[in-house]
Amino acid sequence: MSELSLPERVIALSQARALQLAAQGLLQAPKRRASRDDVVAAIQRMRLLQIDSIHVVARSPYLVLYARLGNYPQAWLEEALEAGRIAECWAHEACFVSAAELGLHRAWRAQAQSNHWADKHAARARDANLKEMHALLERVRVSGAVRASDFERAERAASGWWEWKPEKRWLEAWFASGELMVTRRERFQRVYDLAERVLAKLDPPFDSALLTRSTIELRRHFILDSVRALGITQARWIADYFRLKPAVDERELAPLLASGELLRVQVAGWDSAAYVHRDHAAWLDSACAGRLRATHTALLSPFDPLVWDRARVRAMFDFDYTIECYVPAAKRRYGYYVLPILHRGRLIGRLDAKAHRAEGLFEIKALFFEEGVESSERTLKEVAEAIVSIAAWHGTPDIRLGRCRPAALAAALRAHWRHKASA
């Protein structure tokens, strides 16, 4: 009997959430101290790790990994990049991906007609400065890897691609088109080198046969990878994970159901079917039996895969979330760099944080619990511990707490911190 003809299983929304958290590595706190291999394994599990340079707290990639690994040295991420175990490419946005997956991403970008802003700016740079860009490429070929900071700027300008100095735009244009890659990072600055030299050091070795995959094969691969990474998903959320175009619909998923690569399930309260990768069949069985138990409490990056799709996080977690660092200050509801609070399978609140590294201070400008969230003793204790832990990991162990909603949160959290400090 095919999957299409099987009776449809039904699971509760709470168990769908738990299944997604399990797939993302957020269901339970890590049971052991992290190792270097865990950094690469976490990226492989998520299929990508979005890069963002805002460092009001820690930069996003480090925060995403911390939520899954706990205390680990941030330098491990750069070490994995320099060793060739991961690589940078355009995927959802600029992302780290595992070395094993890079060939598929390069094949996809070579074949797909991308409308991404990076490609548009790269095309404009080539049209306007092709001679200078080729001279820059030849410099890298002869003299070796370069940083944008190796080139002087005539005058200071505002941020943004269009305000970068010419050499930075040209380096990024060559990166977007694949001639240059990032061989390592220095203080989070990209160091660019010829793609052939970066590809030569990948571990596992670069598989050039992946470049011959057809567009149909590649799209199928990224659809399956999206469902695997998300744990459980509606068809309409799939395309966003790797920025696939056109959108994925149920008709396109039908052959993957027929082959057994995808499983279909109904989530109570949803009008649309949900899909699970067959690799997660055991988790799905546990979810159907109501046995997946979420126990983890963590602060999430605004660019965490769990929350970057606003429609998905609203349907999955009843959490209305906007990345407000790109919103004008006067229009922000919660703050500039707002971290969602994950607690035992729910998104229960958010906090606006800033790390003052020189002073060793972790400032919480504002902390909000969602309407209807009960401030139980256990909830307050576990949220307080999560804040203490991330502040200590970040090297900013002193905590300053600003306004809270509800207001009683402030006194309760401070009491937990005082108790922990005196214990």
UniProtKB/TrEMBL annotation:
Name assigned to this protein? Winged helix-turn-helix domain-containing protein
Question: Pfam families this protein is in?
Answer: AlkZ-like
Q: Tell me the organism.
A: Dyella flagellata
> The organism sits in which domain of life?
Bacteria
The UniProt entry, under InterPro entries, shows: AlkZ-like
